[in-house]
Amino acid sequence: MQFKPKVKALNPQLTQKIQNILHVNSLTTVCEAAACPNRAECYARNSATFMILGDTCTRACTFCNVKTGQGNVVDASEPERLARAVNELGLNYVVLTSVDRDDLKDYGAEHFSACVRAIKVLNPSVKIELLTPDFKYNMNALKVIIKSGANKLAHNQETVRRLSKSIRPQSDYNRSLKVLEYYANNSPLHVKSSLMCGLGETKEELLVTMQELLNAGVSELTLGQYLQPTQKHHKVQKYYPPAFFDEMKEEALGMGFRAVASGILVRSSYFAENLGEEYE
User: Which of 9, 23, 45, 154 has its CA 20 to 30 A from that of 204?
Assistant: First the structure.
């Protein structure tokens, strides 16, 4: 018998409040666009992960619920609107991510930087985590991210080597490792990555991937159960019980990761403000 996780129900009033602020400022969150199972819990903490550079991705990963197509024109007013929303939501920790923008010369790196600057001007004490695409390992783009003023850098490996091409057909397993390694080697910031479980991988493959991430300089790791967004997406091959995620957390810490979040509903930005804070 497979173990299927239960997702906490949304609070209609709180959800409406958050959505109103997002609507007034014309912003997109991963919470809504990717149908994240943690929306209820994160909204209850006035927390959200913002998705910049539009709601349309130029890639088509088989696990992701974000729509695919030609990227929208970059909105130069987004950084200021984002800064206002962060202020109105009373956030002290912000995660910024984006769709892939392979149509842009710098893949959107300068826009990431502009968003960080705008938030810091209006909210100087806010800590900002950047969860970036791979920017096709463009050195200039990666340098812009490192110099952006962010407090933590992240890029998701998502799955094991064997499954990577089928799960992320327009991405590359080794390229992602190189991006993470570049962040780790050229910045004093902690570097984070995330893996999904239940796509068809084995435990041994997960352990190998975790070691490769650690070797690349990743110091913080999250592991969570993959949940199929719609019938059109990659099917769940296995539901893991809570004990499995407890075991993987111990394995990761034993390998040498600084901080690990591992659980059925854990996602890359899940309680991002708390991950590793006990080691600060």
Answer: 154
Contact between 236 and 228 under an 8 Å Cβ cutoff? The reply is: yes
Burial profile 70-91: b = 16 or more Cβ within 10 angstroms, e = fewer:
ebeebeeebbbbbbbbbeebeb
Taken in order of first residue, the domains within the chain and their CATH numbers are 12-279 (3.20.20.70)
According to DSSP, residue 279 is labeled G
Residues 6+ apart with CB under 8 A from 255: 210, 211, 214
Report CA-CA distances (Å) from 234 to 47, 53, 155: 28, 25, 21
Confidence category of residue 280, pLDDT binned at 50, 70, 90:
very low
Give the end-to-end CA distance of the chain in Å, rounded to a whole number: 41
Say which amino acid occupies 103. Answer: D
Are the beta carbons of 110 and 143 closer than 8 angstroms?
A: no
pLDDT tens track for 61-102: 867 767 778 888 999 999 999 999 999 888 888 999 998 899
Phi, psi (5° rounding) for residue 143?
-65, -40
**Cut 0.85: pTM above it:** yes
Of 5, 21, 51, 67, which Cα lies nearest the Cα of 230? 67
